[in-house]
Amino acid sequence: MWSLGNITQSVDAWLNEAFSPAIALLIEFVIVGTMAISLFAILGLVLVMMERKVSAYMQIRLGPNRVGPKGMFQTFADTIKLLLKEGLTPTGSDKFLFNLAPVIAIISAMLLLAPIAFAKDFQMWDLNIGVLYVSAISSVAVISILMAGWSSNNKYSLLGAMRSGAQIVSYELSAGLSILAIVVLVGSLKMSDIVASQETGWWLFKGHIPALIAFVTFIIAATAETNRAPFDLAEAESELTAGFHTEYSGMRFALFFLAEYVNIFIVCAIGATLFLGGWMPFHIGQLEAFNHVMDFIPSSLWFFGKTFFLIFVIMWFRWTFPRLRIDQLLNLEWKYLLPISMFNLLLATAIAIMGWHF
Amino acid sequence: MLEEVSVIDQGDMIINIGPQHPSTHGVLQLVVTLNGETIKKVEPHLGYIHRSIEKMCESLSYRQFIYVTSRMDYLSSHINNHGCALCVEKGLQIELPERAKVIRVLMDELTRIASHELWWGAMAMDLGAFTPFFLAFRERETITDIMEDTCGARLTMNYIVPGGVMADLHPDFQRKVKAFIKLFREKADQYNELVTGNIIFQSRMKNVGILSKEDAISYGCTGPTARGSGVNCDIRKLYPYEIYDKLKFDEILETGCDSFSRYLVRVKEMYQSISIIEQLIDNIPEGDFQAKTKAVLKLPKGEFYTRVETARGELGVYIVSEGGTTPYRIKFRSPGFSNLSALNHMAKGGKIGDLVAMMGTLDLVIPDIDR
Amino acid sequence: MSAIQYIKDIFGAVKSLLIGMKQTGYYFTHHKEIITQNYPEEKPKLAERFRGEVVMTHDEKNEHKCTGCTACELACPNGTIKIVTKFEQTPEGKKKKAIDKFVYHLELCTMCNLCVAACPTDAIKMDQAFEHSVFDRSQLTKVLNKPGSKVMEGVE
Known about the structure:
The structure holds 3 protein chains of 3 kinds.
Chain A: H1 4-18, H2 21-58, H3 74-84, H4 95-111, E1 117-119, E2 122-123, H5 130-138, H6 141-151, H7 155-186, H8 191-196, H9 203-206, H10 208-225, H11 237-240, H12 250-275, H13 288-296, H14 299-318, H15 326-354
Antiparallel strand pairs in A: 1-2
Helix pairs in contact in A: 1-2, 2-3, 2-12, 3-12, 4-6, 4-12, 6-7, 7-10, 7-15, 10-12, 10-15, 12-14
Chain B: E1 13-17, E2 29-35, E3 38-45, H1 53-58, H2 65-69, H3 77-92, H4 98-126, H5 131-151, E4 160-161, E5 164-165, H6 173-196, H7 199-205, H8 213-218, H9 223-227, H10 235-238, H11 259-281, E6 302-309, E7 314-321, E8 329-333, H12 335-341, H13 343-347, H14 352-362, H15 366-370
Antiparallel strand pairs in B: 1-2, 2-3, 4-5, 6-7, 7-8
Helix pairs in contact in B: 3-4, 4-5, 4-11, 4-14, 5-6, 6-11, 11-14
Chain C: H1 2-29, E1 53-56, E2 63-64, H2 71-75, E3 81-89, E4 95-105, H3 114-118, E5 124-127, E6 141-143, E7 150-151
Parallel strand pairs in C: 2-7
Antiparallel strand pairs in C: 1-5, 3-4, 4-6
């Protein structure tokens, strides 16, 4: 059957045949790097378009509909505009940090792509501490935000950055604990193991209540970690105009913007991998015929379908809820989410030890 | 309030919110002293959109000056015009035909609903929820269409002239208003589900921006802002003008004194306005829509004061006449100015996010404050 | 009490959030609710009383009803209207006052309708045109009486 895994294997075999192993590895690096960057560009374009269309339909509007068929090329036009714009650096700013911050944001987002399994046997780096790697790298993103807020020499930016620092550091905890619940059930940190363990059913269904609670906690924490509404305090436009990127313009702003959307994609991809079975097709117990039909859908489609579903849910949050206040945001984490996810981890451990899950 | 000693300590931050800022709804500058996220002092700076409307009115005739007042509180422009026309009519001692009175009250209440609808959307948007803004505009659009049919304009209608209204009601008026009432009753419950019941919204609004009854009175707050603190101040009840004394409606009072009770007052007021419209829409008396007036109006020598309840509170119109064709002095007591003065008192000790919510519940229209 | 209250709080909160999401979800799936007008393609249907600009009505014989009484000029709060008059020779040989130019400054006009209300002969009215953008401000100063037009018979 057609699969992305076969293609990569044949490419790898052909390269090793034609060149020496070192050069073959180098070429493979270049290919993977190019693919990652083009994935970035495509994700940026698609997600911004999706956000605008989703918000438009929720707000009884049509959304962008002038550039190209149904406005599909609107984001291209916007990108060109951003590229052509002057990137201003404020006079009082710390120029080195100011220019470094968006690059760190985009690099930390890019590093997170490594352990994600996009399809069957289609993964950049299946390292054995995959989940740990993800939660470690995702905390680097906060540095770029703090750096941007501090170096801009703007009070709005500083306030936004400080809010964001407090927020991301707190929500890392419950995100980590909810991921841990699944790790306990699987017994491995490796992404491929986690996906393989869901062949008989997704963890959301077979993990009982702990997996369900962990899923909800994870979605909330993921929304908060990516600075999305209702947790978008770092850039709360009715309070802090644009928060940490108030002073950024042109391409540097575009990098922050892109990093935000790629981060959404990545947390949703991780959520899909952990709770919704990654590229695993949807199977129902013994219904062989049904399962066979489901197997026929390519694994990459399964993965992207699940991821985009989660992205849609997060967008749905954004266009429905008002924003929380900073003290309420921290209350929610420390008084509700953290105790719940700790208790939940205990429950998950008990279930894993007793082997009560399916 | 003479307790204003220097509140700035080491480590405090002073930031300018405005004149260009998304949540000040216009060109208002707030100089905010912050300790971390906590507000120590808010100092509103006015005058960015001062157009000297009072002075302009003094050089215009009694027929002409009414249209300028639409530009003060542009969201309740019809009610502004109404207040001015009442003052001129008081001076001229004109008795209005019943039909004109009913038309004026109907339009007043429609304007009030339109203004509160827009406030509701903008309020939710200040708190970060964008969708309600568009939903509110849909209903507001129906009202502006009704206005456009009858008055000829959507926002600055200039429909009221001394002695009545400028034109008769559009033949479609009753049908369209009834359709609007039906639509409003359908959709308003949705709004309560989407915003009022939302736990995030409630926790943002409750126990925030406390303005006690005594403080509301001493700052001279009027309208829904004061009624949220339990102050009886509805001009329509206390000093009824036109036909308000014959209508059945409640003055909404909430005693929570916080942002949420001010919010509830406005939401419930929309329902009250709807019930006023329902009482009147089938009982518009036949007759003239305008009393006979002279071509050139001359107020007798003296001072005249009238007040009306706009969507934001009490609007007072004070005319000093020397007997000529133009007012010698004119003064507007605008509701927004007094309401804004309570902001510093309310905001102390709150967070920046609270400040935005408080400004939302004060329902500030900056041209009304600066004039 | 507190443990039960804690759980109750959480469920109440989640319920209120889900109700909100149901609303936006409804609008997302029901596209018939969309109220956007694609403006340049779909022209808005304006009310017949909509005030866009002042025009002077001319009949098929290129005659208008304006006598040049300047009631509108006096009624206008902004100095939008300037009437230039001339003296015409009537067939009987008498001199009669008539308008030369009815100058209308659209850039000053606030569409308050006071001029139309003041006009004793209904010579001017409000028109529905609303697309007034031009590249040069001077194009907004218009002369409302058509060239060669004259006042209608019997209008005083």
